Amino acid sequence: MQVTHPSPAQPALPLSFPLPPPVYAVTPAMPDPDVRALAFQPISSLLDGTRNLYQSVTARLLASPDDDVPDAPGLPLVQAVMAVLRDHPWISLGCAVSPDMLADEAGWGPLLDELRADNQLARRLVIELAQGDDRRETRQALGLAGRLRGLGCLLAIDDFGAAGGTVDFLLDARPDIVRIAPAYLHRARRLHGVGGTSGLLRLCRRLAPAIVIQGVDDPADLLRLPREAGVWIQGVLAGLPALHSPWLRHSPWRLAACAGERH
Question: What predicted TM-score, i.e. pTM, was given to this entire model?
């Protein structure tokens, strides 16, 4: 007789398998499209690219930091720049101020008081002023600009050489710095040199101790410019505007309505 042994019982298959833990995609929070922050662009020596005259400050949107803010932020930008200067006593910063903003002294009182009380801060603030169309407004702007210089600030005439910039304005302003408009280099490129535009440089050198040539974006531009002391460059070759910089203790610096507010 053949004896058969029952097969060992097979373990029952589980009715369901444990599901793997869920995987969550981590996406960084998108910045508020309306939040503005400070962007810093170095102005470097043409002779020694490691030396900076100052950092020019503009406002950018956090959501699109490569684009200029369409509307000038006005006095809050100056307040924010002064806040950065307070927190970084080794740096010099400059920002553009419109003639109508300087012509209207309302709101400048607290800033003037602070600059008067802190000469070291004032000496590191550069006011970039372009000539306006309204002569009366321009005269008023130069009046307040003169008071700022008296407190220690540096005055830079912006976009000289573009339409509207006159020698008389330079003579009246007596600036510390002349910022030559990018149109200067555009002409030099067409003329394959600075021979046809060197007169502008010589004039500016007689009227101010420092010259900033804006729009230096092409390596060939360096061959078109005089390698002299007191000549500085701003553009791609010196550095793009950036929200983050190694010298910043905190970044980005959001442009707040009140001076000194930082996020």
Answer: 0.82
